[in-house]
Amino acid sequence: MDTFFLIESVVKIFTMIAAVMGLATILTWVERKQSAVMQDRIGANRADIFGIRIIGLFQPFADAIKMITKEDYIPPFGNKVLHMIAPAIAYIPVMLLFAVIPMGPPLEIGGRIVNTQIANIDIGLLFIFAFGGIAVYGAVIGGWASNNKYALIAAIRTSAQMISYEVCLGLSLIGAIMIYGTVDLSQMIAEQSGHWFGWIPRWGIFIQPLGALLFIPAAIAENKRIPFDLPEAESEIIGYYTEYSGLKGGLFMMTEFIEMVLISALFSVIFLGGWNVPWLEYNGFNFPWGGTWTLNIWVVKGMQFGAYFLKVAVLIYFFTLVRWTLPRFRYDQVMRLGWRYLFPLALINLLITGIAVVLFA
Amino acid sequence: MAKEYENRELILPTKNMALAMGPSHPAMHGIVRVNAKLDGEIVVEGSVDIGYLHRGFEKSVENHTWNQGIIYTDRLNYVSAMMNNVGYCLAVEKLLDIELPPRGTFLRVIMSELSRVADHLTCVAAQVMETGAMTAFLYAMKAREYVWEIVEMACGARVTTNWTRVGGLMADVPGDFVDAVRERIPLVRDVIDELDKLVTKNRIFGDRYRDVGVMTKDEAIAWGFTGPCIRASGIPFDVRRDTPYLNYDAFDFEIPVGTNGDVFDRYLVRMFEMEQSILIVEQALAKLPDGPVSVDNKMVTLPEKADVYGSIEGLINQFKLIMDGHGIQVPPGEIYQAVEAANGELGFYIISTGGDTPYKCRCRPPSFALTAALEKMITGQMIADVIPIFGSVNMIGGELDR
Questions:
Q1: Of B1, B26, B132, the CB nearest to A327
Q2: Is B204–A326 a contact, with Cβ atoms under 8 angstroms apart?
Q3: Rounded to an integer, what distance in angstroms lies between the CA atom of residue B109 and that of residue B246?
Q4: pLDDT digits (tens, 9 = 90+) for B288-337
Q5: ipTM of the prediction greater than 0.85, yes or no
Q6: Which residues of chain A have pLDDT under 70?
Q7: Which of A67, B11, B368, B369 could tie B224 with a disulfide, CB 3.0–4.6 Å?
Q8: CA angle (A85 as vertex; A82, A87 as ends), nearest 5
Q9: Any chain B CB within 8 A of the CB of A331?
Q10: Nearest CB to A149: which of B19, B134, B384?
């Protein structure tokens, strides 16, 4: 292992953690402001530093201070150890997933190709399924260790819902895997560069529309947000973090926002071509009607980074819109939707994709 | 759901879990408790504990003068307090055998109907919020704000109105009242339309509300349902139509009737009634006559302030009506007067033995019968259904526990 690789990895890890945590922190503000816009309110704008407010952007800091200074309540009749580690069990696997999520296009620094993934492993998507599966334990253990009936019901709902929808989530992506012939996320993005007939971008959403459509509800369900927020249906059962306060409760909430970043990144990588911009190639824009617009390689890279970020941001915005528009399902309805509609549709998608791959490939 | 539960064969033996939902529960308003026995997600048994907001309304009214009792009626259904004021005053006026001047009657109708709009908005909003749709809730709250601005204009308060007096009103409405109401009606209508678009045809809402908490016609009658809940079950019972009070027979309005008696029908009935109430308000505004709002009877109505300070007769009149032991002298007798409050039939049964205080004032709260049937409605449903069912009966602790 040479020094360059070490430095590169450390830089990438810090960049990734900073980007994800930063995004998740800003998301708390986005969520507040977006709901305020939709509900004819002003939203949080009181937090200030020396009188400077900048439309409430300091609110996340105020929230953080509040969470840190709050009483850290541990229910006396629960399992204290598990209660302590449950938020970490929820948080760590989700953070680990970002190891395989690319941050942008590969860069060429000093004659070396630098991948913007922390770990460029070729089992990328399988890694995500594996660690995504672990995330459910955090909520379940947290609910059980609290020794609270509401939390217990929520934990059971969580396990049932997340395991059911993981199946749909996985199946909705298998079509894409079959077409790209790889589970490496960078490879997948590379497969999506270029165009059909010279003008349609080769994005996954155009060859896997059903897969993309199925991915969204399954991902929201994995994320435990409205309309699938049964595990934390605050008006029915208060949620699996009923007995959590302070930073531990905050960590559960943070995990939710980080998961939102994750599914947005995954969706843009698998279905929206990652950092690919239509008609943008290494030398600049090559328009289908014949024109070219030559650009510096670094400008192209910058635009690709920007496009990737924009795709993630738009998706996050979309998930926030859904969150503040729809009501919540009932438990049996969620299960019915998952197993009777999404699951068969995912199988049909798989069948069609399989036939197509055999016929055309 | 109940049938599915009974027919299920258990492979592993399970035990039911007892879960006390409330009074400290987000959906239970802090004033009621559902003792549920759960088998997984299904409520096998659910009894409802009430009484957390008992304030001794009836005893309090007995210990106060006729006009002082009005302030206690504010606290019955605090979302539509004016209707309670009207109901109580109508009962006392019936005992006194006095009739209001037309302007007073019209204003009472207008404010009653506006209160009904506010109440239904609150109920529908709370119901959708508890199903997870916060945005629709805040839209409805915005509309309720318009209504409460009118209420504030009429009496200076928003919740505890204390607006009527025996024999009339606290005061006439301000000069720009009619314009203010006319200005706000389209705003409220817009919000109701918006709510309708957002909620009524939403598939998730439909699935959550349909066939949940069903009460058939016979059951609704047997359990003593009134108001939107009995109408949702298919019985066109409305106190405004069946035993008219004030001058409701002068207005043209429809009584919506449901078919299934489930939560969704109750929601639809409420949405439709809001429109009907607005229609009544519009008709009343068009016909609103001029003149006094209170009866011209020195034994009942307080004199003008100018008279109190300017003439000895006025001062004595004020003294006689206000001082303990003097007050309004209601002849002996007993009376039952019901009004169609937002939740159903709100009745006041008053016994007078003469003098300035009631001997007995019994209130028939609409919520009580509805809450009594909650146990029947939630048994066999899922735990998530308890919340919409509870929301659909619009239990108001103030009038339930009194």
A1: B132
A2: yes
A3: 7
A4: 888 888 888 888 888 888 888 989 988 988 888 888 878 888 889 899 99
A5: no
A6: 1, 361
A7: B369
A8: 115
A9: yes
A10: B19
